[in-house]
């Protein structure tokens, strides 16, 4: 009888002990992995996600490096780490970085599907042609050592936590334009590039843009410098500085950018003046003072689509990535591809 009781006690004891051993051994594995991470600088920096996502025909993309003409094959989200970390400061809010990750993913898919520019590659790393991109090591080297790990992990988190998501309108990926600072109001593309525009790209107001250094800038030119810059494109340009309205803003856009400006004998668009004079945006005012012309410029970039500082400002006000995206792109949906 005593033996039977002893067996029962043993069996019941085993039932409690076995699961405990199991749990403990899992914890040990985790602890070892964490220790390895701490001890190896290489492993501190989060590698690509372990969670794979089936992007079907977009699982890998061919990236053209403009500097040497080489084409590199990368996983889509791995490519996006290099885009997001190149396009948006890592100290921006995580929700803003997530919005940027979705915008970059959408832009990439849109380019591949409808606006492919390169024969042997899907996209290139030149921001003036396709989309900016930076190699991981180069990115890490440019950050201070004390923020290197947290910055990279934040970028990886922003991309991985939005895995699969793109912005669509009528079930198609949108042409997800973005820029640095809207100056408080974004712009319809028709006012920037002409054409018929896109229904999801409207001028929208964003509070908080003025709190960023990208909001305000000044450019001062001498009258001679000013004239020679205009003459580079228009050799027959003349201006009589004694005339009271020798420069006059004739019309502004819905986004408060200069639409048309009369300068001497020329009527130019604000966009053209921005390019000719190297201003940060087409939202400007001017003062003629003695021999100089001073331009006060509001905002940074073309103003179309998502403003990056606006995204950060909205995130600081408690908005999530979905609210941020739907603020800047009208009547869109966020869908998994
Ligand atoms: Zn390109």
How do the strands and helices of this protein lay out in sequence?
Blueprint lengths: L1 H38 L1 H4 L15 E5 L6 E5 H12 L6 H21 L8 E2 L11 H7 L2 H16 L4 E5 L2 E2 L4 E2 L10 H4 L22 E7 H11 L13 E6 L5 E6 L2 E4 H8 L6 E6 L2 E7 L7 E2 H9 L4 H8 L4 E4 L1
Parallel strand pairs: 1-3, 6-13
Antiparallel strand pairs: 1-2, 4-5, 4-14, 7-12, 8-9, 9-10, 11-12
Helix pairs in contact: 3-4, 3-6, 4-6, 4-10, 4-11
The structure holds zinc ion (ZN).
Zinc ion binds next to loops.
What does this structure look like?
- By secondary structure, the chain is an alpha+beta fold.
- It folds into 2 domains: 56-176 and 308-336, no CATH class; 179-304, no CATH class.
- It has 11 helices and 14 strands.
- The chain has helices spanning 2-39, 41-44, 76-87, 94-114, 136-142, 145-160, 190-193, 223-233, 270-277, 308-316, 321-328, and strands spanning 60-64, 71-75, 123-124, 165-169, 172-173, 178-179, 216-222, 247-252, 258-263, 266-269, 284-289, 292-298, 306-307, 333-336.
- The chain has a 3-stranded mixed sheet with strand order 2-1-3. A 3-stranded antiparallel sheet has the order 5-4-14.
- Helix 3 (76-87) packs across helix 4 (94-114) and helix 3 crosses helix 6.
- The longest helix is centred in the N-terminal third of the chain and has 38 residues, at 2-39.
- Mean pLDDT is 88; it is low at 12-43.
- The structure holds zinc ion (ZN).
- Zinc ion (ZN) binds next to loops.
């Amino acid at each position: 009888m005593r033996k039977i009781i002893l067996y029962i006690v043993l069996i019941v004891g085993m039932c409690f002990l076995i699961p405990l051993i199991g749990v403990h051994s899992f914890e040990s594995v985790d602890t070892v992995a964490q220790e390895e991470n701490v001890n190896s600088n290489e492993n501190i920096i989060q590698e690509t996600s372990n969670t794979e996502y089936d992007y079907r025909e977009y699982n890998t993309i061919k990236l053209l490096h403009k500097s040497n003409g080489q084409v590199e094959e990368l996983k889509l989200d791995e490519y996006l780490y290099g885009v997001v970390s190149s396009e948006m400061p890592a100290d921006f809010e995580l929700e803003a970085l997530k919005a940027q990750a979705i915008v970059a993913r959408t832009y990439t898919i849109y380019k591949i599907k409808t606006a492919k520019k390169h024969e042997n590659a899907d996209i290139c790393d030149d921001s003036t042609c396709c989309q900016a991109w930076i190699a991981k090591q180069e990115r890490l080297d440019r950050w201070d050592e004390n923020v290197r790990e947290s910055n990279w992990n934040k970028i990886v988190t922003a991309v991985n936590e939005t895995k699969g998501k793109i912005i669509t309108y009528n079930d198609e990926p949108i042409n997800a334009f973005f820029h640095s600072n809207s100056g408080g109001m974004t712009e319809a593309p028709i006012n920037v590039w002409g054409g018929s525009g896109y229904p999801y790209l409207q001028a929208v107001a964003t509070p908080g843009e003025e709190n960023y250094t990208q909001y305000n800038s000044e450019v001062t030119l001498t009258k001679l410098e000013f004239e020679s810059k205009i003459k580079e494109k228009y050799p027959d340009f003349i201006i009589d500085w004694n005339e009271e309205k020798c420069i006059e803003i004739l019309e502004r856009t819905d986004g408060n950018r200069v639409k048309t400006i009369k300068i001497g004998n020329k009527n130019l668009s604000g966009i053209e003046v921005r390019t000719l004079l190297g201003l940060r945006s087409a939202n400007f005012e001017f003062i003629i003072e003695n021999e100089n012309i001073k331009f006060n410029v509001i905002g940074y970039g073309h103003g179309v689509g998502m403003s990056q500082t606006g995204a950060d400002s909205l995130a600081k006000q408690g908005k999530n990535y979905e609210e941020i995206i739907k603020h800047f792109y009208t009547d869109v949906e966020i869908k998994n591809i």
